[in-house]
Structure formats: structure tokens, C-alpha cells
TrEMBL record:
Transmembrane segments: 16-34, 46-68, 74-95
GO cellular component, as recorded: plasma membrane
Taxonomic source organism: Thioalkalivibrio sulfidiphilus (strain HL-EbGR7)
Job description of the protein: Mechanosensitive channel that participates in the regulation of osmotic pressure changes within the cell, opening in response to stretch forces in the membrane lipid bilayer, without the need for other proteins. Contributes to normal resistance to hypoosmotic shock. Forms an ion channel of 1.0 nanosiemens conductance with a slight preference for anions.
Subunit record text: Homoheptamer.
Protein name per its UniProtKB record: Small-conductance mechanosensitive channel
Length: 280
């Protein structure tokens, strides 16, 4: 009985199984060590999220190689398995062309590093904070707390604006004043408002642009800068303060209106109010 057990334990099947288990244990340990080392190296050039993706790729690649060796020790023919895997890969590839396109697009996004987790981006009509950049899609959280998943292929083909790429942002305010107003006086009032605003930056300096003569107003663009985190405060406060300053200085912000003429360049079209009971 003991001899039978010893002979069984010494058989090729048992020894092959033991070697397979050893391969898996060594592979798992080595995969963990190497993947952590890869993550540390990637953190020097990539974001933490991208480094985590590279770590997972390294882990599963090494573990897969040792798993293949373990299967060979168990007597599996790797050539047959690879052939079957090739046929299966072709079938899956035809069935999941979109996923493959998203996967390749995800690699381009990771390599390009145009945005990362924590950035605020705008894609079409969607604006939100990037939660993660994965191999198949990018996850966003909008400002009204909605979860949005955008396929990587869509991002590659679309115009993507990264709102938090640079430390400062510019706010362009379009304002119109009446034709009777003095442009230099309007400019001075706007500059004074910018000087008094605590979140408006002195450098770059505020920019005053006279855009031209509109249908009912003199059109002006007033551009001011703020740090990225203060942009919304600047946008709200500047518009409120400019309205108050214009009211205090008697500067008119006109609304669209139309004057009718009967043919003469000076005499307006006569208008007569008709009340009820006038017989007209």
C-alpha cells in the first residue's frame, strides 16, 4: 500500500502537477513584484491612474506566461491551445470591432496625456470632471452630479477641451453701451471695476476691445484673467459689479429698438395712439 502511494507520488502526473503549482506560485509572486516596480517607474512620467493600468498589464502578462508553462507541465499541447486561441481571437475580433477600436484609442489617450483623472474637460455638450481614463472609456462626473461614460473612440474623433490644463483662465465679457456714451469713459469704468475685484489678476492685464458698431449699441469685449479655481467667482462678480458701476455712472446698456421713417432721413413715421371709443 505504501509502495503504491510512493509510486503514485513519484509518477509523471503528480510531479507535473507539483511543477505546475510551483510555476503558478513563482509566477504570481514575480508578477506582483515586477508590476509594483513598473508602477513606480511609470509614476515618474504618467499619472497615478495610468501607472495603475501599466501595473495591471505587467501583472497579467507575467502571470499569463507562467500559467502557460504550468499548462504545459500538466500535459496540454500549447500549439493546439494557441491555434484555438487564434481562431477564437479572430471570431471575437469580428464580433467586437468597436471594443477593439476603443482599446486602441485608449492606448493613444494614455500615451498622449492630454488630460487625466481630476481634470475638467468638455466633449461636445458634456462638461465634467474626469473620474478615470480606462482602456475602453473615460468616466466623467458632471457638475449636476451625473455619471457619464464616453467611449475612447468618440474622444479620439471629437474636439476635447481641457478646462483645467493651465493654472489661469480668461473670462471674455461681451457688453454693449449706447451710442451716446464716451468710449474712453466706459473703458475707464471697466478698468476700475477690474482693479477693485480681488480675484481679477493684474498680470495678464485686463483687455479692452472695441468690436464695432452694432444695430443698437457700441459693442465691447472686456477680458479679465483669474486663477483656475477662482474662475466662477470672477465670472459672477465681474458682471454684477459692472452693472452696478454702469448704473452709478449713468452709462446706458441699450436694448434693441427700431425707428421707422416715411422716406425722409430726418422725419420719423407718425404714430397716433387710438383709444377705445374714438371711432377709429
Amino acid at each position: 500500500m505504501i509502495d503504491t502511494i510512493l509510486n503514485y507520488l513519484a509518477s509523471d502526473q503528480v510531479m507535473g502537477a507539483l511543477r505546475a503549482i510551483l510555476f503558478l506560485l513563482v509566477g504570481f509572486t514575480l508578477a506582483r513584484v515586477v508590476s509594483r516596480l513598473v508602477q513606480r517607474l511609470m509614476l515618474r512620467r504618467f499619472t497615478a491612474h495610468h501607472a495603475m493600468i501599466f501595473r495591471r498589464l505587467a501583472f497579467y502578462l507575467i502571470l499569463g506566461l507562467f500559467a502557460a508553462s504550468a499548462l504545459r507541465e500538466l500535459g496540454f499541447n500549447l500549439a493546439v491551445l494557441l491555434g484555438a486561441a487564434g481562431v477564437l481571437s479572430v471570431a471575437i475580433g469580428f464580433a467586437s470591432q468597436t471594443s477593439a477600436s476603443n482599446l486602441i484609442s485608449g492606448l493613444f489617450l494614455i500615451g498622449e496625456r492630454s488630460f487625466g483623472a481630476g481634470d475638467v474637460i468638455k466633449v461636445g455638450n458634456t462638461t465634467g470632471e474626469v473620474l478615470s481614463v480606462d482602456l475602453l472609456s473615460v468616466k466623467l462626473r458632471t457638475f449636476d452630479n451625473l455619471f457619464v461614460r464616453i467611449p475612447n473612440e468618440t474622444l479620439i474623433k471629437s474636439e476635447v477641451t481641457t478646462l483645467t490644463r493651465f493654472p489661469i483662465r480668461r473670462f471674455d465679457l461681451q457688453v454693449g453701451v449706447a451710442y451716446k456714451e464716451d468710449i474712453e469713459r466706459v473703458r475707464k469704468v471697466l478698468m476700475d471695476v477690474a482693479d477693485r475685484n480681488p480675484v481679477c489678476l493684474d498680470e495678464p492685464k485686463p483687455l479692452f476691445i472695441f468690436n464695432g458698431f452694432g444695430d443698437s449699441s457700441l459693442n465691447i469685449q472686456f477680458s479679465v484673467w483669474a486663477r483656475r479655481e477662482n474662475f466662477l467667482d470672477l465670472r459672477n462678480s465681474m458682471q454684477i459689479e459692472i452693472k452696478k458701476a454702469f448704473d452709478a455712472e449713468g452709462i446706458e446698456i441699450p436694448f434693441p429698438h427700431m425707428t421707422l421713417y416715411t422716406g425722409s432721413v430726418t422725419d420719423p413715421f407718425p404714430v397716433r395712439m387710438v383709444g377705445p371709443g374714438s371711432g377709429e
